[in-house]
Design a protein that fits this description.
With 201 residues, the protein is α+β, with helices and mostly antiparallel strands. 22% of the residues lie in helices and 41% in strands. It contains four helices and ten strands. The strands form three sheets. The protein has a four-stranded mixed sheet, with helices on both faces. It has a three-stranded antiparallel sheet with strand order 1-2-3, with no helix packed on it.
């Protein structure tokens, strides 16, 4: 059996100063004593919102994903509906809102399937990922910064695009792999798992 016991914090923080702040994140500059005993500096990006993703899978085993141009990357990205929960906002509430805004869908069932720390050497940004099932169609209402395409694709096709690197968004990659693990280990309803793992015609 592997020992999962955790060690203590080896860093000594002498002082902290907020050196930048906007609506999205702040940057804290830390004056520290490093684990090797030498003085140092460590800047940490403090993200204001909780990252939330929701993977919608319908009863036929199809995934609803959206495509959009991602400004920081300078390229197009296919991904699940995602957004940011305001401080104090329930993550599930955010997930339902993003699902409705980006696809028009509402979920009869919403289940937390994964929690993640993102780029943890430089930021404290966290993410919560939900699985949405028992989907009900509606009308999408994306934000003004979003020009979205909504696609319904077989789960195995989405999984293949994750495996070959054509889907690269980290939350989507993690969610699809987690959903596949759930389907093959009996953590999904049997009918849904069978539909997800059935080869497309």
């Amino acid at each position: 059996m592997i020992d999962w016991e955790e060690d203590g914090d080896p860093w000594v923080v002498k002082s902290v100063a907020r050196v930048f702040q906007n609506d999205w994140f702040g940057i804290d500059a830390h004056d520290v004593i490093r684990p090797d005993g030498k003085p140092g500096a460590y800047d940490v990006i403090r993200v204001r919102r909780l990252a939330v993703g929701v993977l919608p899978i319908d009863a036929e085993g199809y995934v609803h994903i959206v495509g959009q141009w991602r400004f920081p990357l300078g390229r197009y990205s296919w991904e699940m509906p995602e957004g940011g929960a305001e401080p104090g906002e329930d993550a599930a509430t955010c997930a339902r809102r993003e699902l409705a805004e980006e696809t028009g869908l509402s979920a009869g069932s919403l289940r937390t399937i994964l929690e993640m720390d993102l780029s943890n050497s430089m930021t404290d940004e966290r993410a919560v990922i939900f699985l949405a099932t028992d989907l009900i169609p509606g009308t999408a209402a994306p934000e003004g910064t979003e020009v979205l395409r909504h696609k319904r694709a077989p789960f195995l096709e989405v999984l293949a695009r994750v495996a070959d690197g054509r889907i690269r968004d980290s939350l989507t990659v993690a969610a699809v792999l987690r959903a596949h693990h759930m389907a093959v280990t009996g953590q999904m309803p049997a009918a849904l798992a069978a539909a997800m793992l059935r080869q497309g015609e």
